[in-house]
Every structure is written in structure tokens, then in C-alpha cells.
Automatic annotation (TrEMBL), chain A:
SUPFAM superfamilies reported for this sequence: Globin-like
One Pfam family, short name: Globin
Keyword Lipid metabolism: no
Source organism of this protein record: Astatotilapia calliptera
Protein name per the record: Globin domain-containing protein
Organism ancestry: Eukaryota, Metazoa, Chordata, Craniata, Vertebrata
UniProt keyword list: Heme, Iron, Metal-binding, Oxygen transport, Transport
GO molecular function: haptoglobin binding; heme binding; metal ion binding; organic acid binding; oxygen binding; oxygen carrier activity; peroxidase activity
Keyword Heme annotated: yes
TrEMBL record, chain B:
Span of domain Globin: 2-143
Protein name as catalogued: Hemoglobin, alpha embryonic 5
Residues passing through the membrane, by range: none
Pfam families, per database record: Globin (PF00042)
Species per Swiss-Prot/TrEMBL record: Maylandia zebra
Length: 147, 143
């Protein structure tokens, strides 16, 4: 059972209310594909991912970044039930998409860096810790259906 | 995943900016690591205060970032150039190498906060590769 402090709850709600899902999603996902190029293996149908500039201007990458943020919002809306919320998505990533779960935190780290650069000084050490705890819970839930 | 000439240039360009505020970056990164990855506190049980911004954290953060600056200057031969520091980490500190990644990530978060326009995805990948190479250099003498 994940125990959230009041600070952590308000921090997560606050961050997600402030960020633009299309902008942050595109930035985080394209950063992941650039910094960890082996993650491109799952996106063969996305077209040109040849270099950083191509990734940054790829419309399918942008669209998918937004999809990811909208999926994260489900966890934000029900922080006490993240495991149940992602049961289906976990099975999807494991059985259909066959994504190596070690890759989840690579995206998580890129998202953290994008949110940090957006929030600037407001992304204090305490806010940072709450955000990464949230992502760790999300990743753990996504890993659950792997066997 | 060795550093290309383009990577090295990107790292040096970024570090030229970061080194001007190096003292803060080091302390901030270390403080965040202790908070975000609490298991890393196990290496500092001898400090009176492990909270972000505290004196031991800021002083030690500065020391660590000094090491990174040294690594930047030896970017063409990290394995050879970091032998002394590697001996320190291998025989005295015995930091599990998995922890290097956590500090590296926190350093990059701090850099992203302070230099959002400079820490582009291309600079990020070069710097991530560099810090991974530094970690490898530091673990050289472990066994």
C-alpha cells in the first residue's frame, strides 16, 4: 500500500494542473527517443526518427507524447488506486507491445528533466522527490503484469 | 557508447556555463539524490545533517563537482585520467556503482532547472554518455 503525505498529493495534483500535456508529452517522449535511442525499437511505424531534429519535429512522436501524459493523468486522479488503474495497460505493455520494463524509468527520467526545466526554481528538492516517488509507483504498477 | 568528438564538444560547452555556478550545482544535486533516493543516505551516516542545503551536503557537493570538472579536462582519456579517484572509490569509499547513475540523474535535473535552454536533447545525450563514462572510469579499480 502506497502511503502519500498531504504534501505529495498536493504536489502531484499541482504539477499536473500546471503543465501542458501536449508540450510536455512531446518534449519528454522525444527526449527519451533521442537520449536512449534503443527505445526507438518499439516505434518502427513512426517514420523518420533518424536524428534529434527529425524526432523533435515528428508528428507521431508528438501525438504519442500527449497520449502518455493523458494516461499518467489517470493515476493522478486516483492516487490510491494506481495498481488497479494500470492493470490493463500493464498487460498491454507486457503481452502485446512487449516493452522491456527497464525502459519505463528511462521515460520517467526524461519526463522529470522536462518538468524540472518547465517549473524551474519551483521544482524544489522536495517537489522533485514527490514527483519521482509518483513515477516509481506508476512504473511499479506497469511492471506488475510481466511474468 | 563511447564519446564522439561532437559529444565532447557539447560537454565542454555545457560545462563552461555550469562551472560558473558549480558550487551550487554540486550541493543541490547531492541534496536531491539523498532525498529522491533515500537508500543513498547509507553512505553518509556519519554526517549530522543530510537535508538539502545543509552545510555537509553543500561542501561535499562542491567536492564532487570538482571531480567532474577534472573529468571534463580529461575527457579524452577518462579511464586513465580518473585512476586515483577510482582507487579512492574502490578501496576506501566502496560506493556501489549503481549509485553513480542516481547522482548523475540529479545533477542533470539541476542543470535542466538552471540552464533549460542549453540542456537540449542533444546536449542531454552527450552529457548522459559522459557521466556514464565517468562512472565507468570511477569503477575501473573495483575488481
Amino acid at each position: 500500500m502506497v502511503v502519500w503525505t498531504d504534501f505529495e498529493r498536493t504536489t502531484i495534483q499541482d504539477i499536473f494542473s500546471k503543465i501542458n500535456y501536449a508540450v510536455v508529452g512531446q518534449a519528454a517522449f522525444s527526449r527519451c527517443l533521442t537520449v536512449y535511442p534503443w527505445t526507438q525499437r518499439y516505434f518502427g511505424q513512426f517514420g523518420n526518427l533518424y536524428n534529434a531534429a527529425a524526432i523533435a519535429s515528428n508528428p507521431k512522436v508528438a501525438a504519442h507524447g500527449k497520449v502518455i501524459m493523458e494516461a499518467l493523468e489517470k493515476a493522478v486522479k486516483d492516487m490510491d488506486n494506481i495498481k488497479a488503474t494500470y492493470a490493463e495497460l500493464s498487460a498491454l505493455h507486457s503481452e502485446k507491445l512487449q516493452v522491456d520494463p527497464d525502459n519505463f524509468m528511462l521515460l520517467g527520467d526524461c519526463l522529470t528533466i522536462v518538468v524540472a526545466s518547465q517549473l524551474g526554481k519551483n521544482f524544489t528538492a522536495e517537489v522533485h522527490a514527490a514527483f519521482q516517488k509518483f513515477l516509481a509507483v506508476v512504473v511499479s504498477s506497469l511492471r506488475r503484469q510481466y511474468y | 557508447m563511447s564519446l564522439t568528438e561532437k559529444d565532447k564538444a557539447a560537454v565542454k560547452a555545457l560545462w563552461a556555463k555550469v562551472s560558473k555556478v558549480m558550487d551550487t550545482v554540486g550541493g543541490e544535486a547531492l541534496g536531491r539524490m539523498l532525498l529522491v533516493y533515500p537508500q543513498t543516505k547509507t553512505y553518509f551516516s556519519h554526517w549530522p545533517d543530510l537535508t538539502p542545503g545543509s552545510e555537509p551536503v553543500m561542501v561535499h557537493g562542491k567536492l564532487i563537482l570538482g571531480g567532474v570538472t577534472e573529468a571534463v579536462s580529461k575527457i579524452d582519456n577518462l579511464r586513465g585520467g580518473l585512476l586515483e579517484l577510482s582507487e579512492l572509490h574502490a578501496f576506501k569509499l566502496r560506493v556501489d556503482p549503481s549509485n553513480f547513475k542516481m547522482l548523475a540523474h540529479c545533477a542533470m535535473v539541476v542543470i535542466a532547472i538552471m540552464f533549460p535552454k542549453d540542456f537540449t536533447p542533444e546536449t542531454h545525450v552527450a552529457f548522459d554518455k559522459f557521466l556514464a563514462a565517468v562512472a565507468l572510469g570511477l569503477s575501473e579499480k573495483y575488481r
